[in-house]
Design brief:
With about 500 residues, the protein is mainly α. It contains 21 helices and 5 strands. Helix 20 links the parallel strand 4 and strand 5. The protein has a 5-stranded parallel sheet with strand order 3-2-1-4-5. The longest helix is centred in the middle third of the chain and has 156 residues. The N terminus is likely disordered. About 25% of the residues are buried.
């Protein structure tokens, strides 16, 4: 371990006492003057000792240590010993620990600010100042020694006697000996320094031995790894040689295949030239055939024009015959209405069902079934509504719950009735919508023109009311029933109506 300079030389080389290493310490210590100037302004050590009680009496009152006389030390007979760095740091640490416990008047003025520092900053920032005062102020060192020895216990008593326990830390013994300075304290410090240096040297030797062992271990490990790598490389070399042999064999096979492929390519080129000649001849033949086909097509178009003219004349004759037939039927219907003396009716069959809700029993025979058509095509709705005097019967809730079930029942009814009003206005057909209900629901919107709204009576369902409406219609009138209920569709089909699904009406409403 390198030997450190004496405490006095350390103070000479260190920064002035007034400077500090941190912002807070700098603001406090920058205002103070260096130790030398402050000690020059303050009273001499001798006068301070003269005003205070003698050292012998002070030690007699307290359990003080037996040290050398202050006069012999202040005379400067022997210089301060060279302290090892761990011993110096331990002396500063012990002094910084007891510094706040000293009365304020026993602490030198420059160290009073240091005593207020935090414990971890006191020894770090105030180390130069503490070391300087321990060297220059024997009374201050004596007061610090009393506190330190009191805390040291048996180890302090042994150091005072001039002996060092074998199990004691040499650094701690040297620090206590420097502060207490019993007889032979210099020898204790030198012995501690030698022990510290020996311990440092042994630690360095141990570290070197450990590093050598680690290097040897790593070398052995690297040697083992190298052996493994050599084995792997040998295996890899054998595998590469084997693959090289396989690649050579594959190369020979590929060369043979290439020669065969080139021979086939020459044959294919010859065949391609032959086929090109054949294709050229075939193209010429096809062009000739195309010209002949175009000539035949022109002749066919001319014949088709003549046929269209003939068909137009025939269609004109048929239209004239059809008009004459319809005119005859119309006049016959007018004559029949005049002969039967039938007046225009004010009520339709569905109105009687709506007014009385009575079972009319108007059953139809097998002839009525001739009107039934088994179809659910949505496109059929427009065709059926185009028939003259068609009657559209709608299963209300079956349609609304399928199309806009997220609305309330009132909104569903209003939307459906409004849409059916548009259909009645466009087609001029009779429209009846049936809802389930024991009695008529109040708060309905105004019924559009051409739309009839019915509610089933108590004990009767809308399906039964729809079937009665269909039975009430005369045979031969087109009746269209909108319901996705299979039972309703089958029932009205037996009575000659046209059942269609609810989707057909919903799409018709969406389109309109």
């Amino acid at each position: 371990m390198p030997r450190s300079e004496p405490v006095g030389s350390e103070l000479a080389e260190s920064q002035p006492v007034g400077s500090a290493e941190s912002e807070s310490a700098g603001s406090e210590l920058a205002e103070s003057e260096p130790v030398g100037s402050e000690l020059a302004k303050s009273e001499p050590v001798g006068s301070e000792l003269a005003e205070s009680e003698p050292v012998g009496s002070e030690l007699a009152k307290s359990e003080s240590v037996r040290s050398e006389p202050v006069g012999s030390e202040s005379a400067g007979a022997e210089p301060e010993p060279v302290l090892p760095e761990p011993v110096r740091q331990r002396i500063v640490t012990l002094t910084a620990a007891v510094l706040p416990g000293l009365p304020g008047d026993e602490v030198p003025v420059p160290l009073r600010r240091v005593a207020k520092f935090a414990p971890n900053r006191r020894a770090r920032l105030g180390a130069p100042m503490i070391a300087a005062h321990l060297t220059a102020d024997p009374l201050f060192r004596q007061r610090v020694t009393n506190r330190v020895l009191a805390d040291a216990g048996d180890l302090g008593a042994a150091v005072i006697e001039g002996t060092a326990p074998a199990a004691a830390d040499p650094v701690e013994v040297a620090a206590l000996a420097y502060l207490a300075r019993p007889r032979g304290w210099r020898e204790l410090i030198e012995a501690s320094g030698a022990a510290v240096r020996a311990e440092s040297d042994s630690a360095v030797v141990a570290e070197l031995v450990r590093e050598a062992e680690q290097r040897a271990t790593r070398a052995e490990h690297d040697r083992a790894v190298a052996r493994v790598e050599v084995e792997k490389l040998r295996d890899e070399l054998a595998r590469v040689r084997e693959e090289l042999g396989q690649l050579r064999e594959e190369t020979r096979q590929l060369a043979r295949s290439l020669r065969e492929t080139q021979a086939r390519e020459r044959k294919a080129t010859e065949l391609l030239a032959t086929e090109r000649g054949r294709a050229t001849r075939a193209t010429a033949d096809a062009d000739a055939e195309l010209r002949r086909a175009r000539a035949r097509l022109a002749e066919a178009e001319a014949a088709a024009g003549v046929a269209r003219a003939s068909a137009k004349e025939a269609r004109s004759v048929d239209d004239a015959r059809l008009w004459l037939l319809l005119e005859t039927i119309g006049q016959a219907a007018v004559g029949l209405r005049r002969e039967l003396a039938l007046d225009p009716v004010e009520k339709l069959p569905a109105d009687f069902v709506a007014d009385t809700f009575a079972a009319t029993g108007n059953a139809t025979g097998a002839a009525a079934n001739t009107r039934a058509r088994d179809t659910d095509d949505p496109a059929r709705l427009d065709q059926l509504l185009a028939l003259p005097r068609a009657h559209l019967v709608v299963d209300g809730y079956n349609v609304t719950k399928r199309g806009f079930g997220e609305m309330s029942l009132e909104q569903q009814r209003k939307r459906l009735i409004t849409g059916l009003g548009g259909i009645a206005a466009q087609t001029g057909d009779e429209v009846t919508v049936v809802f389930d209900g024991a009695e008529r629901i109040h708060g309905l919107p105004p019924t559009p023109r051409g739309v009839r709204v019915l509610f089933s009576r108590k004990g009767e369902t809308a399906d039964e009311l729809i079937r009665r409406l269909v039975r009430a219609e005369p045979s031969g009138r087109p009746v269209v029933v909108i319901s996705s209920d299979r039972e309703v569709a089958d029932g009205v089909r037996r009575h000659g109506a046209y059942p269609l699904g609810a989707d057909s009406l919903l799409r018709r409403l969406a389109r309109s």
